[in-house]
């Protein structure tokens, strides 16, 4: 099975001008994902985990290294140096991102957000309506909230909506940045069920979780970060091997 993603010597730093400080967030990080894998990154807060994901999604522009992505649309491209137009297209059709936070256009209802994500993939309105209702029901988002604005939602409701919007598109590559951080156990189980379904359908995933129990029986490999570097080579962990 070929690589869908290969990161080579990725480096990202930040300059805090008001403090006169230069902070290296990640330093010469290299790893790979094969198609259909679920790879986990663990480590303490501030170790650089989220920075890796944001560089792949191009929220951050890395200072050095390469992010080789095997795209259906463009072939093999370097996300670290791809054009903004290319990145927009990949986010629209191939690469999904789930974080703890929901950033959406104002005056857009929860149902409209999810439905738009499906229509954006080229599906018709009838299909989009059906799939939207299905995934909102899966995450037990109360029907009374479907036509409400997410700004009024609780933290857990916003997070469930954020996950639903990303997963309903069934991206080729899904980046998960602490997606279960503020969820209760029932909601975590709902996320896990959908992750397992996407895995069966062939979605490749790279996830950050502080909840190691959640990763059990999901991850194929784990990378542990410490001070912006991988503390050790990728580990095939029997505790995380899918049954």
TrEMBL record:
Signal peptide: none annotated. It holds the Pfam family ABC_tran. It is found in: Cell membrane. Keywords: ATP-binding, Cell membrane, Lyase, Membrane, Nucleotide-binding, Transport. It is a peripheral membrane protein. Coiled coil: none annotated. Residues 5-243 form the ABC transporter domain. The keyword Transcription does not apply. InterPro entries: AAA+_ATPase, ABC_transporter-like_ATP-bd, MetN_ABC_transporter-like, P-loop_NTPase. One of its GO terms (molecular function) is ATP hydrolysis activity. One of its GO terms (cellular component) is plasma membrane. Belongs to the ABC transporter superfamily. This is Phosphonate C-P lyase system protein PhnL. It comes from Paenibacillus contaminans. The lineage of its organism: Bacteria, Bacillati, Bacillota, Bacilli, Bacillales.
């Amino acid at each position: 099975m070929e690589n869908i993603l290969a990161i080579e010597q990725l480096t990202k730093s930040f300059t805090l001008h008001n403090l006169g400080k230069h902070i290296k967030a990640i330093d010469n990080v290299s790893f790979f994902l094969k198609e259909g894998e679920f790879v986990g990154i663990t480590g303490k807060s501030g170790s650089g985990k989220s920075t890796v994901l944001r560089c792949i999604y191009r929220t951050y522009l890395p200072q050095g290294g390469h992010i080789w992505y095997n795209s259906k649309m463009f072939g093999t491209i370097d996300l670290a140096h791809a054009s903004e137009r290319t990145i927009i297209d990949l986010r629209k059709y191939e690469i999904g991102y789930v974080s703890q936070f929901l950033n959406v256009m104002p005056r857009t209802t929860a149902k409209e957000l999810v439905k738009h994500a499906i229509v954006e993939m080229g599906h018709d309105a009838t299909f989009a309506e059906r799939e939207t209702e299905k995934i909102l029901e899966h995450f037990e988002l109360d029907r009374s909230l479907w036509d409400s604005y997410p700004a009024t939602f609780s933290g857990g409701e916003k997070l469930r909506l954020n996950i639903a919007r990303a997963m309903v598109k069934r991206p080729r590559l899904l980046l998960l940045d602490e997606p279960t951080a503020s969820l209760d156990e029932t909601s975590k189980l709902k996320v896990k069920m959908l992750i397992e379904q996407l895995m069966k359908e062939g979605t490749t995933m790279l996830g950050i979780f502080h909840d190691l129990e959640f990763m059990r029986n999901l991850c194929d490999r784990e990378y542990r970060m410490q001070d912006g570097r991988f503390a050790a080579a990728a580990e095939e962990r029997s505790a995380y091997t899918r049954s």
